Amino acid sequence: MADGEGGDVVSEYLTQNPHLVPWIESLRGHCETNKQWHARREFILRNLDVFPNIQPGTQSPCLDRLLSLSMVWTNHVFMGCQYPQPVMEKVREMAEGICVHEAPVHKTRDELMGKIKRPHPSGGDPGSLVKKNKVGLNDVDGKGEGKCVALLKSGPPPDAPAQCQSFFNRLYKAVAWKLVSAGGFGPNLDHFEILRSCAESLKVSLNCVFVPLKDIPDLPAGRTQKEGQVCELRCQTVYMGTGYGRDDGAARAMASKEALKTFQGRKVTVKIARRRFHGRDVEDLVLTDEQPKSPVFPPALSYPFQPDSQDANLSM
Amino acid sequence: MGVPAFFRWLSRKYPSIIVNCIEEKAKECNGVRIPVDTSRPNPNEVEFDNLYLDMNGIIHPCTHPEDKPAPKNEDEMMVAIFEYIDRLFNIVRPRRVLYMAIDGVAPRAKMNQQRSRRFRASKEGVELAEEKQRMREEVFQRGGYLPPEEIKERFDSNCITPGTEFMDNLAKCLRFYVADRLSNDPGWSNITVFLSDASVPGEGEHKIMDFIRRQRAQPNHDPNTHHCLCGADADLIMLGLATHEPNFTIIREEFKPNKPRPCALCGQMGHEIKDCQGLAREKQGEHDEFADTVPMSEQEFIFIRLCVLREYLERELTMASLPFPFDFERSVDDWVFMCFFVGNDFLPHLPSLEIREGAIDRLVGIYKDVVHKTGGYLTESGFVNLERVELIMQAVGVAEDNIFKKRKEDEENFKRRMKEKKKRLKAEQRPAFLPTGQFAPQALGGYGRPQSIQNARHTAYEMRMHGRDQQNKDAAQSLKATLRNGSKASSDSLDGRGVKRKAEDSDSEPEPEDNVRLWEEGWKQRYYKNKFDVDLTDDSFRKKVVKSYVEGLCWVLRYYYQGCASWKWYFPFHYAPFASDFKDIKGMFTDFETGTKPFKPLEQLMAVFPAASGNFLPPTWRALMSDPDSPIIDFYPEDFAIDLNGKKYAWQGVALLPFVDERRLRATLNEVYPDLTPEEVRRNSLGSDVVFVGKAHPLCDFIHELYRAESHQPVEIPAELCHGIQGTLNLDEEPILPDKPVESPIPTLRDIANNCAVGIKFKDPQYEDGHVFKAVILQGAKIPNKVLKPGDWERSNKPWRPQLGFNPNRQQVHLDQSALRTLGHHVKPQHGGGQYSNVPPPRGPHMSGQYSNAPPSSSYHQGNYRPPHRDHQPPYHREPAIDSGSRPLQQYGAHGWERSMQSQGAAYQQNMQRAPGGPRGYHQQQDNRRQPQGYNAGRNFPMPPPMKRYNWS
């Protein structure tokens, strides 16, 4: 059932060491299914040599430690439990090579709450490393940034605004309706959530980049001392807004609010504009709202283009 | 059992079990509060002998209340607890015994639930704190104002678990409290007080049950003791029925759903934390004089009369033509047993049985069917006859398939109805198209008559063009207006035009996916695959689950009728099997392991706390909860899966927490036992119940003498000294003694200089192993008078007078002549105000004085509970408005004050009906006048007495 190759190895091992069979079977929990037990048995047998003090047949703190870790692993795989990171890393190493077929998929409490409310601002999810085929909301927390930057490392081509425009027209509509159903634009909204859900309804994700305020060059004097985070929000490489807050979550909320302000106009337009980035002037794709006065953009915190390259490869 | 639905179901089906409490409030005179003298007769017109308090139902609301600001520190919490007990004491006024039981270490079977609650509570606490912090910053960023954060540590409700310092402290405070009241309160002077604190193993309510069980099994017990048990859990009703004591009443807070709660951030009412704007606080009263008062009414209490419930059950369960003599007491036990299928603290409920879907009625139906075949009852004194249970289960199993299909159908119907309702509500706000000009809708009965239509074609053209012009307006412009000004503008700007329906219903929330789909073919296979991760072919595993469940049913019933059979047993799965899986269960259970011991308090803390609550444990113990090398690290996941299991919210779902391996836990803790300080060793030890009496009590001298003699032998209580209560006394190491001052553990309360109380350790009467407590009515017990209307009442010609309170012959109140004059005088002048005057009649002192003695009988049903059986509801309820005559009392039943006066009016009318020949008031007079209207049509109420019997006294 659950034991493919691994099961064969285990049964082979047990036929070679028949004296171990009664002992290992005595470790089985009363309510364990065959599938769980076979996986855990393999985990225990594979790691017996890591705990040389274990004497099959006698109780010892050492054996209990191994049993505990085996339970941590099966609890994680079959029940969806998450443990502190050091524990998770340890069992992941120990479980290397054991394959479990059709492990059940569970939603942890945090994920469930995150879905209903909002992703946690701190974002640091230690368990995400071991999640199987699960893409959480964590991607928007800026960790996904690296990936996206790598994908789109080319400068903004001249036709990029035109290409992006139709997407942002759709986004504009989505945002407008979302705001209507939320009772109009106002200070009490969860701006990020609105923006995120609209973007996701169009099958794209938002990109947040966080930089501590004190790390930003070119700040007016007197502001450099301040603690806090700055967040830059992009979608499809197009810059949408920047915000400041005490922590990532607050910064992101402000950035989203700024971005939503752009959506208050009659329409939104994607343009190429000059911005400061790391002390240089660069061309950047920005979203504007057709105001007669040309807006002044804050310095860019990220730059998803090669400054020189003219080859664009924007995938819409 | 934590099944709120059960109580709701019960009180709807059997409304007469509920009696509202009458509470005498303390009066204030010149700023001096005069305490109520509780030695006076009980205003509820009933005298209780024993009051039992399940203290955890008091501690939780007093330490972290949901409807008012939390107490600032531990001292305030203790005082709140004292006040709460005082209040209950004042309402119930026990004359013999006050028994206070705090939850001690619980049986292993309860631990799954405790773990689940505590792991969740810990995470919820952190989330609330985070949200508060986030909102706080947001409010500040917007320039809002918030009161400064109080410097206090977050109260972790997890500390309400035996073994923590908090619980230890609580026990000390309660000793002080008891000594104080025994010394100073006249109502307490003859009371025997038992305190069973958290150091005594067992859940609070079950310690109480054990006390009652062991008392009634000894010959000196008074079989007519009137018990009153305080607590909100629905299983108290089961426990009360299980005692077979004829006089048993439960008192609990009246449940009012959707009570407003103050915002956790700014402390103001009217919004939730996520909508907090940080606005300046509104002044309460003209000069802010009500600043600290809670704006809603104080929580009120209700009695649940189990003797009335027994009457109802007798009607429902009585079976004629049985092959054996019918024994009502045994059928009550079977009823209690069947309620366990639907939910209890120790087992997950069967998937096909939901209280809301009438599961208990279904079970009772099946039961009455099956009992004919089985030749006997399902249970006897807490022991289960599995063969007969199997028949019940199989009968449920047959219906299972249809139950699931019906459930799905009902859900779909409900959803559809809600959707339609929403649509309707939306439509009511603004029609999609309104004809204008001469086609414009006219109010009925408006000015003039309808005009004839002229040149309809032109009007139609105009309307069409108007609509087109509107539509041609730039969509973005109106949209812009909408966005700029919020939704209010949208209704203006979009007026008069059809609005395009949104492509998708934006307010339909995403449904949690359901992989089991119980309503579809193959449900059983999917259920086992999804919930247990096994194939349906794995018979041996399924048997294991069923066997555990069968053991569980036996354990729970035994727990209720005989006490804890095994401290070790627990149900080792997260889900229940199907009823149809209960096959060949007869041999699945023989008996429980004997001689099992409860956990020690600190061990239990290790078993139920998440690592986040580790601060309640000694450092080396705490470390075992987070150290990767700990041999029990698997007990403490940081985050865990929640299976919504068809429910909507996370808190309703099943928390998939790993079970604790008792052997490994004990082995690991053995290593850290030496690290305990003497204080912690004391907290970790098992304690004893303590009994207190005041100086006036006959037992006082006896106990005092024991201390003087320093006899360290256990001594039996002489039965004649304490209403036949038996037990063993042992000297306390730190006793409370008469004339020895008691130091106050709370800085704000004074020490007791003139202590009159004495305390001594108490042990329940002991019985030999294998003793079976008989579930029968005791000899000499008098069954209380019937309350419900006899089924054959219609045939006799007397009017039926429903009993509202405890006293069937309560002195009636009535309006005398002068009262009627006053009433008439005050009401008359408002006559000109139109036929449905909303002005409430003035409540002069005379009138309110007359009325106030009656209990608010029907108020319980006003808001949330619609009584399905009306056969004893006062007819006043939902009465059509009295027609407009020249009667001065015509506002009765018209809108305005009807609601507020309803309860009083109902009682008033009751009284009138129940005073034959006595002075009569308005009501009858009016009834007579209204007779032609069919006042009582379709109801069971007899006509009021004819006119001639009525006379002005």
UniProtKB/TrEMBL annotation, chain A:
InterPro entries: DSRM_CARF/NKRF (IPR058828), XTBD (IPR021859). Belongs to the CARF family. The keyword Disulfide bond does not apply. It is found in: Nucleus, Nucleoplasm. This is CDKN2A-interacting protein. Keywords: Nucleus. GO terms for cellular component: nucleolus; nucleoplasm. Residues 24-124 form the XRN2-binding (XTBD) domain. Residues 297-316 are annotated as: Disordered. It holds the Pfam family XTBD. Residues 307-316 have a biased composition (Polar residues). It comes from Chanos chanos. The keyword Nucleus applies.
From TrEMBL, chain B:
Keywords: Coiled coil, Exonuclease, Hydrolase, Metal-binding, mRNA processing, Nuclease, Nucleus, rRNA processing, Transcription, Transcription regulation, Transcription termination, Zinc, Zinc-finger. One of its GO terms (molecular function) is 5'-3' RNA exonuclease activity. Residues 494-505, 868-881 have a biased composition (Basic and acidic residues). One of its GO terms (cellular component) is nucleus. Residues 484-493, 849-862, 900-913 have a biased composition (Polar residues). Residues 263-276 form the CCHC-type domain. Transmembrane segments: none annotated. The keyword Cell cycle does not apply. Its EC number is 3.1.13.-. GO terms for biological process: DNA-templated transcription termination; mRNA processing; nuclear-transcribed mRNA catabolic process; rRNA processing; spermatogenesis. Its main location: nucleus. InterPro entries: 5_3_exoribonuclease, Xrn1_helical, Xrn1_N, Xrn2/3/4, Znf_CCHC. Residues 482-515, 787-808, 825-953 are annotated as: Disordered. It is found in: Nucleus. Pfam families: XRN_M, XRN_N. It comes from the Eukaryota. Belongs to the 5'-3' exonuclease family. XRN2/RAT1 subfamily. Possesses 5'->3' exoribonuclease activity. May promote termination of transcription by RNA polymerase II. This is 5'-3' exoribonuclease.
